Give the backbone structure.
Amino acid sequence: MAIPSSPGAMGVFHAVARYGLTIPFGVPVDQAVTIAFAMHTFQYVLGCLLGLIGLGRESLSLGWVRDQATNV
């Protein structure tokens, strides 16, 4: 049985990053949490920007995406 993750993996990603930096590498907890939040924010924003650029290059819009999602 698995515990469901929160939307966007908030919390799970940060906990894994915190312990992954703290235990093997000895990074202080406050720095590890800051790095985790910075990495997660960067990855989220980068993915959104690349998606918007891709939509623009294909001459599509967010409205088209919404319409496609409701037609599933």
